[in-house]
């Protein structure tokens, strides 16, 4: 009698488990397909992948909707322009992705970067953020010279060397500096600096570029690489535990002045100069940009004839 | 902050699905699905294994060995498996990330179930086991009719602690792309600096774990024999109670 009750109980539990598992499975499927956006547009057939914060960032989903009228079928969180996003795009788990324009994976996989004619994504020019107490004329001269030579293509080449060919970032930095034919004067002699970097490869190699250039100009330079996020290294810059870090104009402006409306290169730079805290300053910006971009596979671009983000709002 | 969490949980928009936001009910079902599948697989593996090892007394090294698996860090294993497995899946499927998650959860769930099942069977009173064999039961009958019912309280406690751990750990599924679950709110809330969302996710996971544990406690209450749990039905006690008491009294004091 007791054993029967036990068997029945076990059977009921097992059945409940199976029903629950199947039920949630079908619920999930219907959930992901029912979430269609503006019907009929190309975007409403595509799944977009990118970092979690892209859902709420002003230039993320809200910006795409407001500026281009683009609403994707669904948004899937992958990672911040990293290998998971690239794999998901390559293998078709997402159709479009938010990647960075200097990512070597874009060329390696023949991805197509969609143009951004209405500047949803703000300018992200690379520039040095420095503690004022270390910004001597000599240091400024050296860093401004570097910025004048740094282009987006140089950034892509540096990233390819470091991320694809697994070269040492410092070596890659020195190789590029060697091609510049920098003057052999020592304008930064006598200055002691600590160069920091955020924790992604491009920023590390840029920090090495600054460090090696300053070393070549006579400064005593140490490095503290891979510090982490802005929340960590900006306070470090202000209290002098590091003195210099490579930064990006757009995100830096948003960090100091949340919601600032500037998007073009010059407007962002002008606004940024005013927004930087008293102890810090930005030096000349380079033309090199590492901005967000909506990227699709070559096949998707061809199928829907996509060239710019605006094309996604067309019916197709 | 607490009131903000309350506001977040009460916002109707967070209970609906939209193209850019998956609501609480869907993520709750996702979370349950990841956990249930893992628990079903873990119990299907660990329960029979534990019963056999406990019954035969052979292969106890396996229990110790599998217990050592508890030291494996879940997120590390998850990322490693995802890197190895996910590139092999093409098209609209999250299997490349679901498989690593389920493997990690199963790995986490097996040791408590196995160790408790084994310990439960092993701790059955040898005299009871001997009595059962003495009555002519075969080894399988002893296992099924005597050892299994007697060890149910321990088996249940193993399953309950494994379930609790799996529900809590299933949040790491959101560490991988494409997957949902309640961890999505924790992970996304962190990255969007939307801390009420992040805390709400944590609160939901904790609530889910407690509710499921209570449900399992309810199942345990009715599945375990009163003779084992010491919980006699009141009706039986009332009808036979005085008589039994009288008999016991009579036996204890023959005078």
Q: Based on helices, strands and strand pairing, what is the structural class of chain B?
A: mainly alpha
- Give the topology string of chain B: H per helix, E per strand: HHHHHHHHHHH
Instruction: Summarize the amount of helix of chain B as a percent range.
Output: over 70%
Terminal Cα separation of chain B, in Å? Answer: 72 Å
Major sheet attributes of chain A:
5 strands, mixed
Give the overall shape of chain B: elongated
Q: Termini of chain A, distance in Å? A: 66 Å
Give the amount of beta strand of chain A, in percent: 5-15%
Number of H/I helices of chain A: 12
N-to-C series of helices and strands of chain A:
HEHEHEHEEHHHEHEHEHHEEH
Question: Which residue ranges of chain B are poorly predicted, with pLDDT under 50 across at least 5 consecutive positions?
Answer: none
Mean pLDDT of chain B: 89
Q: How would you name the oligomeric state of the polypeptide chains in this document?
A: heterodimer
What are the low-pLDDT stretches of chain A, counting only 5+ consecutive residues below 50?
18-38
User: Helical stretch count of chain B?
Assistant: 11
What would your notes on this structure say?
- The complex is a heterodimer of chains A (316) and B (255).
- Chain A is 45% helix and 14% strand.
- By secondary structure, chain A is of the alpha/beta class.
- The radius of gyration of chain A is 24 Å and the shape is elongated.
- Chain B is an all-alpha fold and 255 residues long.
- Chain B has helices at 2-10, 24-56, 60-68, 74-85, 95-122, 126-134, 139-169, 183-191, 195-223, 226-229, 234-252.
- The termini of chain B are far apart.
- The model of chain B has no long low-confidence stretch (mean pLDDT 89).
- The A-B interface holds A 2-3, 5-6, 9-10, 13, 17, 20-21, 23-25, 27-28, 31, 34-37, 47, 49, 51-53, 55-56, 61, 71-79, 84-85, 87-88, 91-94 and B 17-22, 26, 29-30, 32-33, 36-37, 39-40, 82, 86-87, 89-94, 96, 145, 149, 174, 176-178, 180, 184, 187-188, 190-194, 219, 222-223, 225.
């Amino acid at each position: 009698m007791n054993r029967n009750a036990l068997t029945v109980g076990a059977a009921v539990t097992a059945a409940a488990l199976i029903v629950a598992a199947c039920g949630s499975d079908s619920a999930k499927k219907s959930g992901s397909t029912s979430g269609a956006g503006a019907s009929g547009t190309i975007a409403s057939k595509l799944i977009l992948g990118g970092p979690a914060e892209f859902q709420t960032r002003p230039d993320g989903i809200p910006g795409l909707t407001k500026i281009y009228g683009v609403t994707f079928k669904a948004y899937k969180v992958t990672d911040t322009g990293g290998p998971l996003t690239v794999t998901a795009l390559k293998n078709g788990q997402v159709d479009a992705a938010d990647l960075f324009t200097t990512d070597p994976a874009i060329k390696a996989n023949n991805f197509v970067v969609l143009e951004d004619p209405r500047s949803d994504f703000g300018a992200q020019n690379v520039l040095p953020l420095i503690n004022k107490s270390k910004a001597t004329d000599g240091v400024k001269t050296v860093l401004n010279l570097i910025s004048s030579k740094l282009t987006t293509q140089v950034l892509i080449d540096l990233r390819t060397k470091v991320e694809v060919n697994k070269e040492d970032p410092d070596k890659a930095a020195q190789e590029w500096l060697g091609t510049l034919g920098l003057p052999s004067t020592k304008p930064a002699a006598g200055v002691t600096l600590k160069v920091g970097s955020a924790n992604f490869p491009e920023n590390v190699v840029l920090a090495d570029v600054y460090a090696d250039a300053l070393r070549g100009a006579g400064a005593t330079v140490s490095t503290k690489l891979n510090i982490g996020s802005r929340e960590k290294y900006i306070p470090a810059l202000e209290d002098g535990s590091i003195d210099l870090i490579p930064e990006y104009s757009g995100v830096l402006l948003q960090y100091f002045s949340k919601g600032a409306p500037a998007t073009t290169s010059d407007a962002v730079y002008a606004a940024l100069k005013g927004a930087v805290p008293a102890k810090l300053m930005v030096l000349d910006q380079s033309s090199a940009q590492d901005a967000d971009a909506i990227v699709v596979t070559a096949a998707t671009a061809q199928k829907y004839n996509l060239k710019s983000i605006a094309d996604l709002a067309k019916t197709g | 902050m607490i009131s903000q969490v309350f506001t977040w949980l009460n916002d109707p928009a967070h209970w609906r699905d939209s193209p850019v936001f998956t609501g609480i009910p869907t993520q709750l079902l996702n979370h349950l699905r990841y956990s249930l599948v893992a628990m079903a697989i873990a119990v299907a593996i660990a329960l029979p294994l534990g019963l056999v090892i406990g019954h035969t007394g052979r292969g106890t090294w396996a229990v110790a060995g599998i217990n050592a698996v508890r030291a494996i860090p879940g997120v590390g294993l998850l990322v490693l498996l995802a890197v190895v497995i996910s590139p092999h899946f093409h098209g609209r499927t999250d299997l490349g990330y679901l498989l690593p998650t389920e493997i990690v959860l199963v790995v986490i769930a097996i040791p408590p179930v196995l160790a408790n099942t084994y310990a439960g069977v092993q701790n059955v009173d040898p005299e009871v086991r001997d009595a059962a064999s003495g009555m002519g039961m075969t080894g399988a009958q002893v296992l099924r009719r005597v050892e299994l019912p007697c060890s149910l309280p321990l088996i249940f406690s193993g399953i309950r602690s494994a379930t609790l751990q799996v529900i809590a750990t299933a949040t790491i599924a959101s560490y991988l792309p494409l997957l949902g679950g309640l961890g999505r709110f924790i992970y996304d809330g962190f990255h969007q600096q939307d801390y009420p969302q992040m805390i709400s996710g944590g609160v939901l996971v904790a609530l889910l774990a407690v509710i499921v544990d209570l449900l399992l406690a309810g199942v345990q209450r009715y599945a375990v024999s009163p003779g084992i749990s010491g919980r006699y039905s009141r009706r039986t006690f009332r009808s036979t109670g005085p008589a039994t008491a009288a008999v016991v009294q009579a036996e204890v004091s023959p005078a």
